[in-house]
Design goal:
Rossmann fold, Ribosomal Protein S5, domain 2, 3 domains, nine-stranded mixed sheet, 22 strands
C-alpha cells in the first residue's frame, strides 16, 4: 500500500523540509520552497520493473586490484561535440544539454543522432509530435534507418519501449516534460525532475547506454529544476548564442570524462548547424582599412588556440560619472587594467567612458587577453589604429609588467598560420622557446607596458 505525504522542496537546490520556510537553510535563497505530494512505494525501480536484464551487484574492491584501461568512447560524427565531450561519447554516461528556447538544442541532438549510421537510436520527445520531428529531419536532409521516434512523457511507458528496442543511444527531449506515477506532482516539479533523472541515471549505468537529456533554462540562464540535477549527471553542456545571430557556442560546464575548458562553435543555417573548424576567421572582422580601438589577442580555449578581436571605445563622460561596460570580459578585471594604465603609465582615463567588447559573442577568461585589452583602449583613446597584422598574447600585472602565459608556442603557430606578421609576448616566455621554427612571423618580446606602447604607437 502506497503512503503519501506532503513535503516542501527548494526549487533551487532540491533540499526537503517538513514545513514551509522562508529562507532555504541549504542554499540561502528566499521564497523557493514549494509544496508537493510525494508517494513512497516499496516496489522496485522503474528500470528494474520494465526490463528483463540482470542488474549488476556492486562489491568492494581494493584500490590496487582495480585494473584501469582506455575508455571505449563512441566517436560521434560531429567533431565539435566530440571535442567538448572529451574525445567522444562514453558508454553509460548521462549528458545534459541546456540552452535558451529556440537556440537549437533539439536541432543539434537530432542532427548528431541522424548522422549515427548502423547504431540504433531512440529519440523520446515530450514536446513535439512525430510529424514535427520528421519535418526537421527533412530540413536537415539526413536519413537513418535505425532512428526511432517516441512521443511519450510517461517514464513507465518509455522504459517498456526501451526494453523492446534496446537502443544504443537514448535521447530525451526534454527532462522537464517527463513524469512518473510514483510521484504525485506535476511534470517539471522538483520531485519529478529529480526522480526521473535518477531512474535514467540508473538505466544508463546498469545497461551501459549513453543518454542525452535536453533541459530548459530559467531567465537567469541556469538549468531549470533543482541544482542537484547538475550533480547527478556526468556532463553538463551549455548551448549559447543569440537567436538574432548565426553563430552558436557549445561549452562544457561540467565533464567527468574530459576538460571543461573546451569550446565548440557552430553556424546556424537553414539546413542545420554547420561546424566551424577555424573559429579565428569568424571571430576576427574582415575589413579593408585599419580602425582605432581594435586589436587581436591570441587566446586559448582548452587545447584550441583562437584569434579574437578586442574592441574598445573611449569617450568623454557626458553625464559626469564615467561609465565602465564590458561584454565578454570580466568588468572587475577591466577596472584593474584601467587602474594600471592610470597609475603606472600616466594615462588619464578616470574622467572618460570606457566600453569593451569581445567580438563574436563569446566570453574570454584567458589572462593572455590583458595586453590586447589595454592596447585597444589606448588605441581608441589616442585615435591611433593598430595594424591588423599584429596580435598580442600576454598578461598584465599590477605593477605594469608583462607576465608570461601558457602554451605560447601554440599561440605563435596559430598566428603564423593565419597570416599575422608579428606577435607581442612577454620576454619571460622566451625561455625554452625555439624561435628558429617560425619563419613567417616576427616575435616581439617585451617586459613593461611602456615598451608595448612605444612600439605600437611610436
Amino acid at each position: 500500500m502506497a503512503k503519501s505525504k506532503t513535503s516542501f522542496y527548494c526549487q533551487n537546490c532540491g533540499v526537503q523540509s517538513p514545513k514551509w520556510v522562508g529562507r532555504c537553510p541549504s542554499c540561502g535563497q528566499w521564497n523557493t520552497f514549494v509544496e508537493e505530494v510525494v508517494t513512497h512505494t516499496t516496489e522496485s525501480t522503474l528500470w528494474k520493473k520494465n526490463t528483463a536484464k540482470s542488474v549488476r551487484s556492486a562489491k568492494p574492491h581494493l584500490l590496487h586490484d582495480i585494473v584501469t584501461g582506455t575508455e571505449q568512447r563512441l566517436a560521434l560524427p560531429d567533431h565539435e561535440l566530440n571535442r567538448v565531450l572529451g574525445g567522444g561519447l562514453v558508454p553509460g554516461s548521462l549528458v545534459l544539454i541546456g540552452g535558451e528556447p529556440g537556440i537549437g538544442k533539439s536541432t543539434l541532438v537530432l542532427q548528431v543522432a541522424l548522422a549515427l549510421k548502423n547504431i540504433r537510436v531512440l529519440y523520446v520527445s515530450g514536446e513535439e509530435s512525430e510529424q514535427q520531428i520528421k519535418m526537421r529531419a527533412d530540413r536537415l536532409k539526413l536519413k537513418n534507418d535505425n532512428f526511432f521516434v517516441l512521443t511519450e512523457t510517461s517514464l513507465e511507458n518509455i522504459f517498456s519501449q526501451v526494453a523492446e528496442i534496446s537502443p544504443a543511444v537514448l535521447i530525451v527531449d526534454s527532462i522537464q516534460t517527463l513524469f512518473t506515477g510514483n510521484i504525485e506532482s506535476s511534470p517539471g516539479s522538483v520531485s519529478q525532475i529529480r526522480e526521473c533523472t535518477a531512474e535514467l541515471l540508473r538505466f544508463a549505468k546498469e545497461s551501459n547506454t549513453p543518454v542525452f537529456l535536453i533541459g530548459h533554462i530559467t531567465k537567469d540562464g541556469v538549468i531549470a529544476g533543482p541544482k542537484i540535477l547538475e550533480h547527478m549527471v556526468d556532463t553538463v553542456l551549455q548551448f549559447e548564442g543569440d537567436r538574432h545571430h548565426i553563430y552558436r557556442i557549445l561549452r562544457a560546464m561540467k565533464n567527468r570524462f574530459g576538460s571543461t575548458a573546451e569550446l565548440g562553435i557552430y553556424e546556424m543555417q537553414g539546413s542545420g548547424l554547420r561546424e566551424v573548424s577555424n573559429p579565428s576567421e569568424v571571430l576576427i572582422a574582415q575589413r579593408d582599412e585599419a580602425l582605432s580601438g581594435t586589436s587581436i589577442a591570441a587566446t586559448m580555449e582548452g587545447v584550441r588556440p583562437l584569434m579574437i578581436e578586442t574592441q574598445a571605445l573611449v569617450s568623454s563622460a557626458v553625464y559626469g560619472t564615467p561609465q565602465r561596460s564590458s561584454t565578454g570580459f570580466d568588468l572587475r578585471r577591466l577596472s584593474m587594467l584601467l587602474a594600471v594604465l592610470e597609475k603606472r603609465c600616466g594615462f588619464r582615463l578616470g574622467a572618460k567612458d570606457v566600453f569593451l567588447n569581445i567580438a563574436g559573442g563569446i566570453r574570454v577568461e584567458d589572462p593572455a587577453i590583458d595586453l590586447s585589452v589595454i592596447c585597444s583602449i589606448l588605441s581608441s583613446s589616442e585615435d591611433i589604429a593598430i595594424s591588423p597584422k599584429i596580435c598580442l598574447a600576454a598578461e598584465v600585472g599590477l605593477s605594469g609588467e608583462i607576465r608570461p602565459v601558457t602554451r605560447v608556442d601554440q599561440r605563435i603557430s596559430e598566428a603564423e598560420k593565419l597570416g599575422f606578421e608579428q606577435i607581442i609576448i612577454s620576454k619571460y616566455n622566451l625561455k625554452g622557446l625555439d624561435l628558429s621554427r617560425y619563419h613567417q612571423i616576427k616575435v616581439k618580446a617585451v617586459s613593461k607596458v611602456e615598451e608595448v606602447f612605444s612600439h605600437l604607437f611610436a
